[in-house]
Every structure is written in C-alpha cells, then in structure tokens.
Amino acid sequence: MVKGGLIPVSRVKKAWNDTPIKWSPIPIGLGLALITFLQYRKIIEREADRDTSTSKAVVVGPWHVHVISELPLKTISRLWGTFNSITLPMWFRKPGFKLYSWIFGCNLEEMKDPDLTHYKNLSEFFYRELRDDVRPIDYEAALVSPSDGRVFHFGLVDGSRVEQIKGMSYSLDEFLGSQKASETAEIIKATHSANIVDEEEFAEVNGIGYTLDSLLGHDQQPTMEHKKQDSEGNVVPDEEADKKSMLKDSQEHLRLRPGNALFFCVIYLAPGDYHRFHSPTNWVAETRRHFSGELYSVSPWMVKQLQDLFVLNERVVLLGKWRHGFFSMVPVGATNVGSIVLNFDKELRTNCWDDRHKRGYGELLYSGVSRLLNGQPLRMGEEMGGFKLGSTVVLVFEAPENFKFLIEPGQRVKMGQPLGQIE
C-alpha cells in the first residue's frame, strides 16, 4: 500500500504489462463434460415443453452427432440465406458462378438463361431454370423422378416404419403427421385454378374419385360399439371386444386397397443439382403440413449417422391421392437451405425466425382449390416448387404389389426419368 491507501495507476499498468500470460488447453474431458451438460439441459427443456398431443423424436447417434445438434443450424441457415440474397457486382457474377459450377459440377449448358450476369445473387443462380428440352418426361412410366439427384434409398414400407438405412428406420406417423386432420387446420382460399370440365376430365382419366379421409382410414363414420349377453341374458357392452377393435384400428396406419402395398423412395439433391422439383405423377394434393423441425445436413454421411433424421428436420408434407390410392411427396429441408417453395401455395413460409409451429406442425387444406377434386391437381412433370439449395425429396405412396422400381441405390437420376412401373 502507498500513502493514502491507493495504488498508483502507473503501477497497475506496469503489473498488467509485465505479467506473463500462459495459455493452457482445456482438457478433453472437460470439453466433453460441457457438451454432455448442454445436451442434458436441451433434453430437459424439450421434455418440459413437450406437447403431449404430438410425439417427438430425440437425437440418437454417436457423440459427434450430439455435438452437431448443439450448433445453431437454423440461425446459420437463415444467415446463409440472407448472404445468398446479397446483390453481387456485375463484374463478379460470371467468374463467381463459373467457379461455383466447377466446384459442384453444375451444367451451365442446360440453363434456360445462359447469361450469368442476369443472376443477381447466389439465390437466383441456385434456383435457375432449365431449358424445356433437357428434361424429357417419360409419360409411359407409372412414376418419374421429381427432381435431379441421387437415389439414396427405396423399397417397401414395413408396417408403420420406413427404412432410413439398413438397420435403422423411422416412424411413418411421425414423418407424415397424425392420421386425422387438425381441428385448427386452415383452408386455402378458393382459387378455382381449372374449370369444371378440366377437373372432371382429370378425375376420370386418372381414376381419382374419393377423399384423403377414406385413404387414411378415418372416414366420418360412427364407431361400432360391441355388445354381448351377460349370465342373465341381458345385452351389455363388450369392453374386451371394444379394446381389441381399437387395437386393430390403431395398427391400421393406412387402409390400403386389396392387392396394394406401401412403397417409398428417397432422392438426395446435392448443391450442384437442379433445385426445382416437379410432380412425379398425375395426382391431387389435398393437405399440406409444415413441420418446422431442425436443419441437419441430409448428406448420405449424416443419414447413416443420425437416427430419425427425416423426422427431426424441417419438411413440407403433401398428402393426397393418385389412381392407385394414397400418395405423398415430402420436400425435406437441410442445413443452409434458405427456404422451401411451393408455386401453388403462397402461404407457405419455411425457416422463419418467428415460427408459430415450433412444437408441432401447421396444416393447410387445399379443398378450396377444387371442390370436385378436393385439392390441388398436379400433372406429371409439372413444376411444383423447389429448394433454395440442395436437400431431399421423399415419396411415400400406395401401389399394386406388382409395382417395380427401375432404379438402383446410389444411381444418379434426372427429373422426368422413370422411377418405377406396374408390371
């Protein structure tokens, strides 16, 4: 201490400058303990906010998957989307987009507008259109590829489970949502996109004449109450038979037509692929469900590491019907995907800062588009929307048991190329 009990400022500065600073690495164990604590806190918060009416998937995978799950992937993706929208200087566009194309393998010769200076930013270049003649549609096929990409997986749905990879599956109910429409579902404003003659022709040509409710097995019919006679001959409720009936109904996740089965197909879009997706067949989309979810990478490596990846990620579930029964198409979001776009649904907003449906999903019914078809008619090859970067499209559909896929795992496919046929 000095006179007056105060230390001169000069001495404080000297001590600060002369004191050596020694940096020591944080022990690996301490770092892992911190990650474990953060993951535990996240699970506790999730359980505290759990919506009991909606089942939730939990991150399951090796330790590095849990590390990735702690990253602010949605925020990073939003910032990346904002960055992609920055207008680039004219002089940079041509060399910049050519460099990107060289790195990710984009075919610039297929572009509808080949002048790279017309694309103001990365977002417009990602969402580029192709010439009409470079993606011929095979109209003879029962099902064509909705997008460019790589076939990741396909096959039969096993009961209520969809195989993600061999030895790993996810719940179909959690992926598509509950069978019954939500009481809070909104109905899209009537636009009457086609006249009544076109709608009748579409329904007759494609054999479509029933609603999604009947497809999913929850028609508005009264529940049968079973009866029995007691020892005195009185007719009383048969509670045991009721329980068995309820159990049987709960196991019938989809009421398939006789001789039909449920199939699925997963197509992965890389950053260099054409990012728009098209209708894989003639069908009617009746319901749209938007699951906010997370934005994990959907690369083949991540698909093999993270169980329930497609259930965890943000996705837009389109439920409907085609001539063979139930049909659904699900664009799945991923890290750095700015948004998912539907041309016929301007109400859709994905990867938003203020997400109203964080704990469930928002639902929209397309019955207002066509009263006859009860939904949005979509023709094979018609452009439906797209991603603002690469991602994944999942098809889950009902078809006759003799439906045969014409693709191989890992195969590169182009939009319009046949995926399968009915033998």
Automatic annotation (TrEMBL):
PANTHER family (UniProt xref): PHOSPHATIDYLSERINE DECARBOXYLASE, PHOSPHATIDYLSERINE DECARBOXYLASE PROENZYME, MITOCHONDRIAL
EC number per UniProt: 4.1.1.65
Active-site positions on this chain: 148, 278, 391
Gene Ontology biological-process annotations: phosphatidylethanolamine biosynthetic process; protein autoprocessing
Catalytic activity: a 1,2-diacyl-sn-glycero-3-phospho-L-serine + H(+) = a 1,2-diacyl-sn-glycero-3-phosphoethanolamine + CO2
Involved pathway(s): Lipid metabolism; Phospholipid metabolism; phosphatidylethanolamine biosynthesis; phosphatidylethanolamine from CDP-diacylglycerol: step 2/2
Protein name per its UniProtKB record: Phosphatidylserine decarboxylase proenzyme 1, mitochondrial
Gene (name only): PSD1
Cofactor annotation comment: Binds 1 pyruvoyl group covalently per subunit.
